[in-house]
Amino acid sequence: MQLGRVIGTVVATRKVVGLDGVKLLVVQPLTKRGEPKGEVVVAADGVAMAGEGELVYYVSSREAALAMPETFVPVDDAIVGLVDQVDLDEGDLDGSDVDGDADA
């Protein structure tokens, strides 16, 4: 799972069967410190609650397809949760592991 912030939406005039009613959101990947990391991604809203400005965690690849109401739809990334709070231990602040991947 990766941490990200929703920064926009995608409007699709046509979607494949199985994605009808699913929002597509633009997500900026973040490090665990909340700093931007890499290119933005378009993620399907698997929780049906995410919106612009929300801190979210998302999955990629096969896990993204499994996170959707209808499994195995063609998505590369899917939002699977909203983040209320991020707590870091002192060891997390030494800069040794700032890739943004969650260990949960």
Core attributes:
OB fold (Dihydrolipoamide Acetyltransferase, E2P), 5-stranded mixed barrel, elongated, 5 strands, single chain, mainly beta, 104 residues
Overview of the structural elements:
Strands 1-2-3-5-4 form a five-stranded mixed barrel. With about 100 residues, the chain is mainly β. It has one helix and five strands. Helix content is about 5%, strand content about 30%. The protein has a single domain, classed as OB fold (Dihydrolipoamide Acetyltransferase, E2P) (Beta Barrel), CATH 2.40.50.
Structure described in brief:
With 104 residues, the protein is mostly beta strands. It contains 1 helix and 5 strands, in the order ββββαβ.
What's the level 1 CATH class?
A: Mainly Beta
- Helix/strand structural class: mainly beta
Describe the strand arrangement of the main beta sheet, using strand numbers. 1-2-3-5-4
Number of strands: 5
Basic shape:
elongated
Write the layout of secondary structure elements.
Layout: E1 2-10, E2 24-29, E3 41-45, E4 55-60, H1 62-66, E5 77-82
Parallel strand pairs: 3-5
Antiparallel strand pairs: 1-2, 1-4, 2-3, 4-5
